[in-house]
Design a protein that fits this description.
single chain; alpha+beta; four-stranded antiparallel β-sheet; 20% strand; elongated
């Protein structure tokens, strides 16, 4: 009888552990397979690491986008409820396109940037990096909140 109880306890513990692992994590961005992953909004291939971005839900599911405007439209359209989004991640245009949390980034909109869906918005970790690119390409600075207006 004790062997059955021990087996049952181990079995239930294993199932719980695997369930938690399967749920994923929303501790940060998940890798984007550029050229393979599809934009969750427009279904185009996410191909340009300078503009490919991501939202991660509170349950740990990652949605990839080829342009920040697609991410915004995806949420505005109700495909993912805003309250279910744990974080948005945008690539740092000037520093190896590392995905960083969107809030707090400096945004530049310039037609000269030519993003895949022509949102033409690049994100920067520092204001000085943004200014360097703006000196070359022109454009206007935006905030994260500006994208939601």
């Amino acid at each position: 009888m004790q062997k059955i109880r021990l087996f049952f306890t181990l079995f239930v513990s294993s199932i719980l552990f695997m369930s938690l692992q399967a749920c994923g994590s929303n501790d940060g961005p998940q890798p984007i397979a550029y050229g393979k992953d599809q934009c969750a909004y427009c279904r185009m291939s996410v191909s340009d690491p300078r503009f490919g971005c991501q939202l991660v839900t509170t349950k740990g599911r990652a949605f990839h986008f080829d342009d920040v405007q697609c991410a915004v439209a995806h949420v505005k359209k109700g495909n993912v409820a805003a309250e279910d989004v744990a974080n948005y991640y945008l690539p740092d245009y000037s520093n190896d396109n590392k995905l960083l949390p969107a809030e707090g980034l400096y945004l530049l909109k310039s037609e000269a940037l030519k993003s895949p869906m022509r949102g033409d918005i690049a994100a920067f970790a520092s204001e000085s990096d943004l200014e360097e690119v703006r000196n070359v390409h022109g454009g206007e600075t935006l905030t994260w909140a500006d994208l939601w207006k």
